[in-house]
Amino acid sequence: MRPEDFDRFAEIWANPQVVRHIGPPKSRAEAWEAFLRNAGHWQMTGFGQWAIHDQASRQMVGQTGFFFAARGLGDDFDACPEAGWLLTPEVQGNGLAGEATKAAHDWYDRVIPGPLVAIVTEDNLASRNVAQRLGYRLLRRAEMGGETVMLLRRDGPPGP
Hints:
Number of helices: 6
Structural class: alpha+beta
Number of strands: 6
Helix content: 25-40%
Distance between the termini: 32 Å
Strand order of the largest sheet: 1-2-3
Largest sheet: 3 strands, antiparallel
């Protein structure tokens, strides 16, 4: 992500429809902290999140990539980089999440091969489908923020 992506980043994270499966909307200050955390991931770990831009409008419409969240969910989860993806409602359902996350995972498999984890809520069928196509399998269920979530793990790219 580039500095000029921040205004759109903050808009996206403030949208209740975008974050409905991952938590409450972020204030501009909280979005700034998340934006800087992403930059720090690239600096400290060699990976992070990419902005997803719509080619026609050149507007940022989401993000995908990897991070450490130190969630306290156990060594089987917290020791691995976590994958995440999100898109604005106007571009959901057209395969963009699958395409962008596959490209990010292909990069990861070439540059930093190893296991990855992800969190998906039970009712987020679109993200569950993306995760399944990427080779994630259920590790276990856990409680987060009063909700049961699925902790997923991917030990490498899916087979043919």
